[in-house]
Amino acid sequence: MDPVRNPYAPGAGQRPPVLAGRDREVAAFDVVLERVARGRPERSLVLTGLRGVGKTVLLNALRSQAIGRLWGTGKIEARPDQGLRRPLSSALHMAVRELAPRHRAPDRIDDFLGVLKAFALRSNPPNAKLRDRWQPGIDVPAASGRADSGDIEIDLVELFTDAAGIATDVGTGIAVFIDEMQDVGLADASALCAACHELSQLGGPLIVVGAGLPHLPAVLSASKSYSERLFRYTRIDRLEPDAADRALTAPAKREDVEFEPSALARLYELSGGYPYFVQAYGKATWDNAPASPVTAADVMVAAPEAEAELAVGFFGSRYDRATPAEREYMRGMAELSDTDGPVSTSDIAKSLGRKPSSLSPARDSLIKKGLIYSGERGTVAFTVPHFGRYLRTQPV
């Protein structure tokens, strides 16, 4: 079939032609937006799940919902080597700029931007030379005495409170979207929790919507003990068969292409229902199928091509980031679980003939790199679906 008309889109955060299987999350967020806009108490939202389940895609879809309701929005991607001051400043600057044309008091906007600039400038080292000091793109003088103490928790509470005041004036809300939220540092996570806690008590129309790996709730809990009551946690998992089928058939139908039921069943078996894999196998199948309807035989012909692409771009790129010691650790994990489920760290040490303490550096480094996570004490699992299966097929 014509590859130019191929509707499938495997890519990091790239929205598929049909956002299948996420209707419940989209509808629930509509309720959150409406409640917050009406001054009703509502928790911020955290999406968790493995890589490849579509967290970033869903995060972007929720942001589009907020924009559709005329909210101010900003989005950042957390990084383990960067604090939150600079990216949060940019996100809130964008959000308030979206609301500014509807605000009746320009001076009030300028006052907030002065506070925002003061908050942002605290990210500069105190002894940095003038030429080395970062300057945010905010064309008002920095304010003094508000959100500039240098204590991120105090400053973020004040900044979020002031931003929520701007949204209240306009009669709408502000949403800050944070991807890869598990990479937020402990002090910054604590500050986020404190700011969200303050806003929930005041009823301020500002929410945080985060997305991260399955251990994100534990990261937040380690920063503030009340975090489990502060956020609405939503686990994003693989698609059910009917949703995976719809992700394939709906865009194909627009191109007058159909799938035989046996082809859909085979595609689900290969992809496991993980949205990224659904798109990857769907794209390869389209390119290899001679005509409609697509058959199970077409899927099997295309499968090696999809798997080769996943081996390089999805699995291989992550495996290449690991050191020899880390690769040994992951291979030990893969050999212990045919289903790629959680495995005991003591069992890994036993299988490798090592003491558990000697493997701690490799395990901790893999967690920091986002290749594995610890959902429960004493166990680890891969953050990437089918990663163990991939490792078991690779030569040592």
TrEMBL record:
Residues 168-319 form the Cytochrome c domain. Pfam families: AAA_16 (PF13191). GO terms for molecular function: electron transfer activity; heme binding; metal ion binding. The keyword Nucleus does not apply. Keywords: Heme, Iron, Metal-binding. The keyword Metal-binding applies. Residues 336-362 are annotated as: Disordered. PANTHER family: ATPASE DOMAIN-CONTAINING PROTEIN, DNA-BINDING PROTEIN-RELATED. This is ATPase. It comes from Actinocatenispora rupis.
